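ARCHIVE CARD
Drawer: 12
Card no.: 0347
Subject: one protein chain, sequence and derived structure
Cross-reference: see card 0346
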Amino acid sequence: PILRDFVTVIPDPAERINHIRSASLSNRFAFATVATVACALIFALTLAHVRSDRALYSVALKWQETVLQAVVSKMNSAGFDDAVQAVVGDRTTLPYPVQFKIVASDNSSVGTPAQKLIRQEVRALVVAGQSSGRVAPPNQDVLLVFRSLADGRIAAAQVRRSDVLSGAASWLPTLAFVLLVAIAAAMMVTKVISGDVLRSVSSLRETAVVMASGDLRKGRISDADDEVGELWRAFESLSDGFRATVIGLSNSADRFDSTAVEIANVADGVTDASEQQVRRIQQASELMVSINSQVMEVAGAAQNLNISIEDSSSSILELGAAGDEL
């Protein structure tokens, strides 16, 4: 909605691009590909890490059970500490630092809260009828196996989770290297794919700019069979239709120009004829004025003649009367 309002306020794309800098198509392509590969790889590595941790815990617990079974077997002829020393020997050669002990099976309050919780869990398993078992609380750094002794005591072997995973910590640089290599490979593949797309889009944009400048000649033709090729062919069809429309408009404009010239010639002829008619009307008007003045003169002369005739008639009558008198 914000971008739509921004487009409404600033409709000119050239002005709008000065206010908004969007990421390029290649950068968005690279980000999408790298993000997808990185997320998938991180998920796979995390899943592999969790499964490997569980496998390491399982191996450690099985090793503890084996050693503890050997210690319990030795206790038939020796005490607990002597049996441990006889089975384990030099502890520096062990794969993990292991601690052997006798776990109290009662509700003793001695020890840390974590130790109390482990004792309670071991006691619950023994009460449930298990003579041996495993205790590996997920929220504690403890992997413990126990075995019930004939005298009612409980022998236990315990290692720390962190000691089991200490060797796995050396995998982290390798995992980081694998992640970096995968991201670099994804970026290279993205560059190759996006480069082809960007070249086609750039050529399409250049062709559109050339057409906008008035050059309607056929430009570069793409022979790609993918979506970009389909876009090129659609643009070529648009260009051909636009070119045909412009040529048709140009021909119509030429015909319109020729028609306008003919109309202008006819108009000039009509104008000349009108001017001649106006001159003839003026001449006729002047002639009518001249005839009118001559008629007026003739009318005046006729009136004078009438007066002269009347005077002559009077004179004749007087002469007739004078002749009668004579």
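Annotation on reverse: The beta strands are 99-103, 132-135, 143-148, 154-159. The mean pLDDT is 77.
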